């Protein structure tokens, strides 16, 4: 009877677990469609759609987002591949030509985001669009794209954690199990943890945006900090091989550095009054430092705020702005208006980059 009960326990655990897909490539005639690449492409489409609607709601031209994406997305794919190769270089030391074979998998999200944002910033600066408003626009769209892209890891049976007997444990086929863990059948679905974290982060950012409690551009810092913190604890659960520095995974160190950097940038911006600075001069040509029309109301008109002359500097929300087209060349409101601490401006923006490579990974996909 004891053996029977044991067998029932194992069967019950497996019935409550998450199965892994049996295929990761769809064969359509002569075309091989890698589901991992398809998920990344769908993530890009979702990010562009969300960002376009948010930008239009602020008075901007939704086609601006597509213009940015045309440059930022390919840059993101290249940056993601370079990050993967740099952090997992040992995989290619015997044959560096394999590092160029992107269709065999290997994309690092941190590198993709960094490259996409930098190239997006370049595009925004060339067109004279307001960076901080655009950063706020794409802030919730990026984690949504990342969450969709993570579904591709499920099809590849990769980016999972250590063994677990939890009801939501992920079934992994023997050929995909890490060395030394071959006897275990279910593992933590860390890609799912990260996807759910990113979706929650996107919802939190939208909630903050509606409350109008942050300065322009700070929503993006919330995204960066939130993603780094989520990646930090998810990374601690992963069991796949990775390069180590002082006994910790490279991505763990990266998450710590990025989270601290975002927190410092937020603190540094808050310690300065909302006045035009040399660093903001790039965006001044775009809209004269004004918030787009849809954002010129709300918390900015709170009569309970401390007057600027008593505080010695303006606060993040006390900046009364002129509503207008975010791409106009008009300046700020009359510098002599009561209660304001002077004009402020915006810089140049970036956007999310996800790979659109439909020849995605057969194994060892996103980092």
Give your account of this protein's structure.
This protein is mostly helical. The protein has one domain (33-330, 341-367). Helix content is 49%, strand content 4%. The chain is built from 11 helices and 6 strands. It has helices at residues 2-16, 35-57, 63-87, 109-127, 131-138, 141-156, 190-211, 218-235, 250-270, 281-287, 308-311, and strands at residues 25-28, 31-34, 170-171, 186-187, 244-245, 248-249. The protein has a two-stranded antiparallel sheet. It has a two-stranded antiparallel sheet with strand order 3-4. Helix 2 packs across helix 3 (63-87) and helix 3 (63-87) runs antiparallel to helix 4 (109-127).
Secondary structure layout:
Blueprint: H1 2-16, E1 25-28, E2 31-34, H2 35-57, H3 63-87, H4 109-127, H5 131-138, H6 141-156, E3 170-171, E4 186-187, H7 190-211, H8 218-235, E5 244-245, E6 248-249, H9 250-270, H10 281-287, H11 308-311
Antiparallel strand pairs: 1-2, 3-4, 5-6
Helix pairs in contact: 2-3, 2-5, 2-6, 3-4, 6-7, 7-8, 8-9
Shape: globular
Subunit arrangement of the protein:
single chain
Please give the number of β-strands.
Answer: 6
State the low-pLDDT regions, or none. 6-14, 277-363
Structure classification? mainly alpha
Count up the domains.
1
Strand portion, in percent? under 5%
The strand order across the widest sheet is: 1-2
**Overall pLDDT level:** 76
How can the largest sheet be summarized? 2 strands, antiparallel
Global Rg? 23 Å
Number of helices: 11
